[in-house]
Amino acid sequence: MNIRRLLVIAVPYLWLLALFLVPFGIVLKISLSDLAIARPPYTPYLDLAAGLAGLKAFFAGLDFDNFVFLTTDDLYWRAYLSSLWIALSSTALALLVGYPIAYAMSRATPEWRPTLMMLVILPFWTSFLIRVYAWVGILNTEGVLNQFLMLTGVISEPLTILNTRTAVYIGIVYTYLPFMVLPIYATLDRLDDALLEAAEDLGCSRLSAFWLVTVPLSKQGIIAGCFLVFIPAIGEFVIPALLGGSETLMIGKVLWDEFFRNRDWPVASAVAIVLLLILLIPIILFQRNEQKQREAEG
Amino acid sequence: MATMPANEDFAPWDDPSARALITFRNVTKRFGRFTAIDAIDLAIYEREFFALLGPSGCGKTTLMRMLAGFETPTEGAIELAGRDIVPVPPNRREVNMMFQSYALFPHLSVWDNIAFGLRRSAMGRADIAARVEEMLRLTRLEPFARRKPHQISGGQRQRVALARSLAKAPKLLLLDEPLGALDKKLRQETQFELMDIQEKTGTTFVIVTHDQEEAMTVASRVAVMDHGRIVQVDTPARIYESPNSVYVADFIGDVNIIEGTAGASSDGPNLAVHWAEGQQALTGPARTPLAGGQRCALAIRPEKIAISGDRPGGMHNVVQGKVLDIAYLGNVSTYHVELPTGHVLKAQTANTRRIARRSHTWDDTVWLSWSDTASVVLPV
Ligand SMILES: Nc1ncnc2c1ncn2[C@@H]1O[C@H](COP(=O)(O)OP(=O)(O)OP(=O)(O)O)[C@@H](O)[C@H]1O
Ligand SMILES: [Mg+2]
C-alpha cells in the first residue's frame, strides 16, 4: 500500500477520531465523574504533573454512580420511553404524510420534478429555530389556525394545541418531513413504469399493483426515511421546548435541564451516553439497510 | 431464408368463413397532433404467429399496447373474439404481454414472478404450484426457480418473461421484440423454442421485431408497417416473392430495383419495362395492372440473377456489365456489377467451389440474366 492510498484512508479516520471519538471520550469520562462545586463542575480532574500517582488517583475517582442514579429516579426512564414513543409516532405520521408527497413528485411530469424537489428543500434555507417558532404563532389559542377555524365557523371555542403532545408531533413531522420524502422519492423515481404495466397486464388493479409492486420496491426508501426521522427525533430538544410546554417529557429536555439548570454535568453526560446507546441500535440497523441496498444495486 | 410454417394447410386468412380472433376496424391513434397509427384494418386469426415488421417509430409498439390495453385508440374499434375490448382495462383482458425490457419484478424470485398473474386469479394454491412448475419445465428454468431476476443471465431472464406471460394461458400473447437482447445463436434457438411453445400451447402470438429474418422464420403471416400504416400483410413467402410495393421489396431482404416506364402489355401477365436508352426492355410479371407509359420499377432478388462469362441464350432479361466488387459471405458471394448505364446490380451465387477457383473476378466483363418470372414489376 503506498503513501497516497494510506493518506486517503487515514484522513477520514483522523477526522472521525477528532470530531467524534474524542468528544465522545470526554463525555464518557464526565459521565463517570462526580459533581463538584468547581470549574469545570466535576471531579476527578486529570493532573498530568502528578505522574503515575495522579493517573491512579484519576481512575480511582471514576465510577458508575451517575448511571445508577438514573435508575433511581423514574423521571429518566419515563423520559426515555416517552421520547421513544413520540419519535416512533412522529415517524409513522411523517411516513403517512411523506409517502404521498414523494409518490406525487415521482408521478409529476419531468419538467415539474426539480421545482417540486425545490419546494421540499426550500424550508431548510431558513433557520430551524424560526420555523419552529412560527408554529407557536400558528398553533396558539389566538393563533392563525384557531382564528381561521373560528372565522369559518368550524369551531366556536379555540383549540388548545400549543403546549400539548399534538404540537410536538406537528413540529417533528413538519421539520423532518424532507428526510422522509427525499429517500422515498429517490426509490420511486427509479421505479420502471413497465413494472406497473406488467402487474396490470397480469391481472392487478391499479391499487393492488401499488401494494404489490410500488410499495415493496420503495421499501429501501421507506426504511431509510424512517430512520432519518426517528434517530434525530428521539433526542429532539428545541421542538418539545418551544411547542410541547411543560406537559411533554422528552429526554432532550431532561438533558438540557440537567446541564444548564442544575449544572450537573456528570448526570447530564450519563443521560447522553444512555441516549447514544439507545440510538446505536437503530443506527446500526440503518447502516445495514444502506449496505443491503448498495449490494442489491451492485 | 423463408421457412414454411409447420402446418402448410393452416391458412384461415384465405378461408372466408373463418372468424378472426382479433379485428382492427379503422383504428387510428394520435399522440397530440402526431398520428402514430393511421386508419388500420387488420384481422389476426386464432393460433396464428403474427409478426409486425417495420422501421423504428412506425407504430409497432403502439399497436401492441392498444391490444394490451395500455393505449386507447383515438378512433376505430378493436375486437377480441367478437367483443369490443377498447373499454376493457388491461387487467381484465385475456391478453398477456411480454415486455421489450422483460419488466420482471426485481423483488420476487423467478418462481414468484411466474406465479404473479396466477395469484391474481381465482386459482387454488396447488393448481398455481402445478402450473408454475409446468411453465418452468417448458422454459427449462427449473434450476433457477428460487433465484431473483438479477441473479440469472439475460437469456434466462427472457425465458422467465416468456413463462410469466404464458402462465395464465392467455388467448393472445404479445411479444414486443422479445429476442432483441440476445446474441444471434441464442436468438435462433429461442425462435425455434417460441415456435415450439406456440404449437404446444395453441396460443395466438403477435410478435414485434426489427429483424426481418426473425419475422420470416417464426411467422405464419407478416405485416409490414410504415408510418403508422400497414403496407402489406401476407405469408413470409409471398411477402418475399411477391411484394406489393417497392417499399416492401426493399424492406425484406436484398433486392435490385430498376426504375423505368411500362411498355404496352405483350405476352400474358408479363410487362416490358423500358429502363434505359438503347437497352433492351426487361420483362417481368406486373403485381398490379399498369398502363403503358406509367412509371414503374422492376424488382429482382440478387440470388435469382445468374452470372456468366458468355451471353446466355434464350433469355429476355440479359444485361452486360463489369464486376465492381465481390463480397464473400461464406456460403454465398455477392457480385456488384456495374452496367454501362451506371446502374449497379447485385447478383448472388452459392459458393460451391473453393474461393480460389471462382470463375469471375474484379473488372471481368460478365453477363447477368434472369428468367421472366424471377422478377416482379411494381408501381412507384
Ligand atoms: N406516449 C407517446 N407520446 C407521443 N408520441 C408517442 C408516444 N408513444 C409513441 N409515440 C410516437 O409514436 C410513434 C410510434 O411509436 P412506437 O413506439 O409504436 O414505434 P415502434 O414501431 O415500436 O418503434 P421501435 O421499433 O423503435 O420500437 C413514434 O414516432 C413515437 O415517437
Ligand atoms: Mg417498439
What's the overall average pLDDT of chain B, rounded?
89
CATH class of chain A: Mainly Alpha
The total of beta strands of chain B comes to 20
CATH architecture of chain A: Orthogonal Bundle
Instruction: Output the structural class of chain A.
Output: mainly alpha
Indicate the CATH class of the largest domain in chain B: Alpha Beta
Query: What gross morphology of chain A would you assign?
Result: globular
**Beta content of chain A:** under 5%
**Rounded to an integer, what's the Rg of chain A over CA atoms?**
24 Å
Assign the CATH architecture of the largest domain in chain B. 3-Layer(aba) Sandwich
Strand order in space, largest sheet of chain B? 6-7-8-3-9-10
Cα-based radius of gyration of chain B, to the nearest Å = 25 Å
Task: Give a structural overview.
The complex is a heterodimer of chains A (298) and B (380). Chain A contains 14 helices and two strands; from the N terminus they run αββααααααααααααα. Chain A is mostly helical and 298 residues long. Chain A has one domain: MetI-like fold (Orthogonal Bundle), CATH 1.10.3720. Chain A is globular. The relative contact order of chain A is 0.13. Chain B has 380 residues and is an alpha+beta fold. Chain B folds into two domains: 12-94 and 170-246, Rossmann fold (3-Layer(aba) Sandwich); 254-372, OB fold (Dihydrolipoamide Acetyltransferase, E2P), CATH 2.40.50. Chain B has helices at residues 60-68, 110-119, 125-138, 154-166, 184-201, 212-218, 236-241, 246-251, and strands at 22-31, 34-44, 49-53, 75-80, 83-84, 95-98, 172-176, 204-209, 221-226, 229-234, 256-262, 270-274, 282-285, 295-300, 306-308, 317-328, 332-338, 344-350, 365-370, 376-379. In chain B, a hairpin with a 7-residue loop joins strand 11 and strand 12. The complex binds adenosine-5'-triphosphate and magnesium ion. The site of adenosine-5'-triphosphate has 12 residues of chain B, from strand 2 and helix 1.
